[in-house]
Predict the 3D structure of the following.
Amino acid sequence: MNRVYNFAAGPAVLPEEVLREAAEEMLDYRGCGLGVMEMSHRSKDFERILQDAKQDLTDLLGIPENYQVMFVQGGASQQFAAVPMNLMKNKVADYIVTGQWAKKALAEGKIYGQANKIASSEDKTFTYIPDVSDLPVSENADYVYICENNTIYGTKYKELPNTKGKILVSDQSSMFLSEPCDVTRYGLIFAGAQKNVGPAGNVIAIIRKDLITEDVLPGTPTMLKYKTQADNDSLYNTPNAYGIYICGKVFRWIREMGGLEEMKKRNEKKAKVLYDFLDQSKLFVGTVEKEYRSLMNVPFITGSDELNAKFIEEAKQNGLVQLKGHRTVGGMRASIYNAMPYEGVVKLVEFMDRFEKENA
Ligand SMILES: *Cc1c(COP(=O)(O)O)cnc(C)c1O
């Protein structure tokens, strides 16, 4: 077996320890005689898996009593609709558009009500986060929506917006559990699992309990009501049980590594190696304003499409894969999520250095 360093933005690298453990349990989960994929989601064994996952997540983030943790399906994109369907009581919501994912969420919001774009960084191809300290938040807005880490562009909010008392909804897909987070500042956090915590299709939603009501938009499907998921503890229908199982293992892995403070420290250390290299390089350039750099997604370019393509190809031959940038940005992107080892980033930087010298 020859594992590569996988810099994909998602589905992305998972901790090797987690994958090995899952492999060992694939055919016979802890003496059950069957695997988790074959197991009833109503069985005692799965109930344990689900509750342990929830507990570990709760402990990691310090999620208070008045918040509900839910595992839902349909990817983060499904939440672009679920959020307005559940929360748009006045049919008004404000969106801060800092990239493609926020833009998509805004477009979806418009289907259900008056979704306002109150700030945007599109004027400079999303290379920064706008000033969010004093935005024209709508009087009757049901929530203010952000995408907190922009997977495609590689920017991250360093401060949360002043929502002027409105509920904050955050798409944390590509930064979930990468550092500590004060859950009490949000009405709702959701994250697609495939960036930092598990298999695609799984979504983790953390919602303040008073926001879970029957008062949803007419026509909201039963499956998309947060109340349905909360009342049934994520078991209204057959959940993505195997995905929850893997997420649970990743939560446990993070705990064993020392928790979110430790994750942050590691992630900062990894990102520093890469950003420091970019800052002194004469060939490679980071594409975003330094102040807003993401710890997770690092886009960079050489200024020549030909060299970019050559770099991506040669990196691949050196076991450094999935470095091609998003089609809307071009160039390269290194996603260095929790599970990317420090050595992987060092290898990447060494390779970049070599490539720069050879192509000077
Ligand atoms: C990947 C991503 C999404 C979309 O996730 P799906 O699970 O494919 O729907 C949404 N938001 C952010 C920030 C992402 O990185």
Remarks:
- The mean pLDDT is 97.
- The CA atoms of residues 32 and 106 lie 46 Å apart.
- Residues 10, 75-77, 101, 147, 151, 171, 173-174, 192, 195, 200 surround pyridoxal-5'-phosphate (CB under 6 Å).
- The chain has nine helices and 14 strands.
